[in-house]
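Help: why these numbers?

___
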Amino acid sequence: MNFSVHSLDTAPEAAKETLAGAKKAYGFLPNLLAVMAEAPALLKSYVALVDLFDQTSLNVSERQVVLLTTSYENGCDYCVAAHSVIAGLQKVPHDVVDAIRHGRPIADRKLEALRREVCEQAVDAREAPSRFWEALDEAEDERAEAQPAKSR
Protein backbone atom coordinates (compact mmCIF):
# COMPACT_ATOMS: atom_id res chain seq x y z
CA MET A 1 0.00 0.00 0.00
CA ASN A 2 1.37 3.38 -0.97
CA PHE A 3 0.64 6.53 0.95
CA SER A 4 1.15 10.09 -0.19
CA VAL A 5 3.55 12.07 1.97
CA HIS A 6 2.11 15.55 1.65
CA SER A 7 3.80 18.89 1.97
CA LEU A 8 2.08 22.11 2.90
CA ASP A 9 1.63 22.70 -0.84
CA THR A 10 0.14 19.29 -1.73
CA ALA A 11 -2.02 18.66 1.33
CA PRO A 12 -5.79 18.94 1.10
CA GLU A 13 -6.97 22.41 2.05
CA ALA A 14 -8.64 21.12 5.23
CA ALA A 15 -5.29 19.80 6.50
CA LYS A 16 -3.02 22.74 5.72
CA GLU A 17 -3.59 24.74 8.91
CA THR A 18 -2.94 21.69 11.11
CA LEU A 19 0.21 20.81 9.16
CA ALA A 20 1.47 24.38 9.37
CA GLY A 21 0.99 24.29 13.15
CA ALA A 22 2.88 21.00 13.40
CA LYS A 23 5.74 22.33 11.27
CA LYS A 24 5.97 25.39 13.48
CA ALA A 25 5.91 23.30 16.68
CA TYR A 26 8.48 20.69 15.57
CA GLY A 27 10.60 22.78 13.22
CA PHE A 28 9.85 20.23 10.48
CA LEU A 29 6.86 18.32 9.16
CA PRO A 30 6.82 14.77 10.58
CA ASN A 31 6.10 12.15 7.91
CA LEU A 32 3.34 10.59 10.00
CA LEU A 33 1.40 13.84 9.96
CA ALA A 34 2.21 14.42 6.29
CA VAL A 35 0.62 11.04 5.48
CA MET A 36 -2.36 11.63 7.78
CA ALA A 37 -3.05 14.85 5.89
CA GLU A 38 -4.75 12.74 3.21
CA ALA A 39 -7.58 12.36 5.73
CA PRO A 40 -7.84 15.78 7.44
CA ALA A 41 -10.22 14.52 10.15
CA LEU A 42 -7.70 11.81 11.11
CA LEU A 43 -4.90 14.37 11.20
CA LYS A 44 -6.90 16.77 13.38
CA SER A 45 -7.96 13.94 15.71
CA TYR A 46 -4.39 12.73 16.13
CA VAL A 47 -3.09 16.23 16.87
CA ALA A 48 -5.93 16.77 19.37
CA LEU A 49 -5.07 13.49 21.10
CA VAL A 50 -1.40 14.49 21.32
CA ASP A 51 -2.43 17.86 22.77
CA LEU A 52 -4.61 16.13 25.39
CA PHE A 53 -1.78 13.74 26.31
CA ASP A 54 0.50 16.74 26.76
CA GLN A 55 -2.00 18.15 29.29
CA THR A 56 -1.79 15.13 31.60
CA SER A 57 0.04 15.20 34.92
CA LEU A 58 2.94 13.27 33.35
CA ASN A 59 6.08 15.30 32.70
CA VAL A 60 7.88 15.27 29.32
CA SER A 61 10.16 12.37 30.23
CA GLU A 62 7.27 10.30 31.58
CA ARG A 63 5.18 10.92 28.46
CA GLN A 64 8.07 9.85 26.26
CA VAL A 65 8.58 6.73 28.36
CA VAL A 66 4.94 5.84 27.67
CA LEU A 67 5.22 6.53 23.94
CA LEU A 68 8.62 4.89 23.44
CA THR A 69 7.74 1.83 25.50
CA THR A 70 4.45 1.38 23.68
CA SER A 71 6.28 1.66 20.36
CA TYR A 72 8.93 -0.84 21.48
CA GLU A 73 6.37 -3.31 22.81
CA ASN A 74 4.34 -3.07 19.59
CA GLY A 75 7.47 -3.78 17.54
CA CYS A 76 7.14 -0.55 15.56
CA ASP A 77 10.71 0.32 14.61
CA TYR A 78 9.56 3.47 12.79
CA CYS A 79 7.67 4.63 15.89
CA VAL A 80 10.65 3.91 18.16
CA ALA A 81 12.91 5.91 15.86
CA ALA A 82 10.45 8.81 15.61
CA HIS A 83 9.82 8.99 19.36
CA SER A 84 13.55 8.71 20.03
CA VAL A 85 14.10 11.84 17.94
CA ILE A 86 11.22 13.64 19.66
CA ALA A 87 12.54 12.56 23.08
CA GLY A 88 15.93 14.01 22.14
CA LEU A 89 14.33 17.28 21.07
CA GLN A 90 12.49 17.36 24.40
CA LYS A 91 15.72 16.76 26.35
CA VAL A 92 14.74 13.33 27.73
CA PRO A 93 17.95 11.81 29.15
CA HIS A 94 19.78 9.67 26.58
CA ASP A 95 20.16 6.76 29.01
CA VAL A 96 16.35 6.59 29.40
CA VAL A 97 15.79 6.51 25.65
CA ASP A 98 18.61 4.00 25.13
CA ALA A 99 17.27 1.65 27.81
CA ILE A 100 13.81 1.57 26.25
CA ARG A 101 15.18 1.15 22.71
CA HIS A 102 17.09 -1.94 23.87
CA GLY A 103 14.42 -3.41 26.16
CA ARG A 104 16.46 -2.80 29.30
CA PRO A 105 15.38 -1.42 32.67
CA ILE A 106 15.68 2.32 33.24
CA ALA A 107 18.00 3.36 36.07
CA ASP A 108 15.52 5.95 37.37
CA ARG A 109 13.17 3.94 39.62
CA LYS A 110 10.06 6.03 38.93
CA LEU A 111 10.53 5.91 35.16
CA GLU A 112 11.27 2.19 35.33
CA ALA A 113 8.04 1.58 37.25
CA LEU A 114 6.18 3.47 34.53
CA ARG A 115 7.97 1.50 31.80
CA ARG A 116 7.03 -1.81 33.44
CA GLU A 117 3.38 -0.74 33.78
CA VAL A 118 3.24 0.24 30.11
CA CYS A 119 4.79 -3.13 29.18
CA GLU A 120 2.07 -4.93 31.15
CA GLN A 121 -0.65 -2.82 29.54
CA ALA A 122 0.77 -3.55 26.09
CA VAL A 123 0.66 -7.30 26.80
CA ASP A 124 -2.93 -6.96 28.03
CA ALA A 125 -3.86 -5.05 24.89
CA ARG A 126 -2.33 -7.74 22.67
CA GLU A 127 -4.23 -10.45 24.53
CA ALA A 128 -7.54 -8.58 24.68
CA PRO A 129 -8.77 -9.57 21.20
CA SER A 130 -8.29 -13.29 21.90
CA ARG A 131 -10.01 -12.94 25.29
CA PHE A 132 -12.89 -11.15 23.55
CA TRP A 133 -13.37 -13.94 21.02
CA GLU A 134 -13.08 -16.61 23.72
CA ALA A 135 -15.74 -14.85 25.81
CA LEU A 136 -17.97 -14.47 22.76
CA ASP A 137 -17.61 -18.18 21.95
CA GLU A 138 -18.48 -19.07 25.56
CA ALA A 139 -21.56 -16.83 25.46
CA GLU A 140 -22.67 -18.43 22.18
CA ASP A 141 -22.23 -21.90 23.69
CA GLU A 142 -24.20 -20.92 26.81
CA ARG A 143 -26.97 -19.44 24.69
CA ALA A 144 -27.15 -22.56 22.54
CA GLU A 145 -27.32 -24.78 25.64
CA ALA A 146 -30.07 -22.63 27.19
CA GLN A 147 -32.36 -22.80 24.15
CA PRO A 148 -34.76 -25.73 24.09
CA ALA A 149 -34.21 -28.21 21.31
CA LYS A 150 -36.48 -27.54 18.36
CA SER A 151 -38.90 -30.28 17.47
CA ARG A 152 -38.58 -31.64 14.00
The two ends are 52 Å apart (CA to CA).
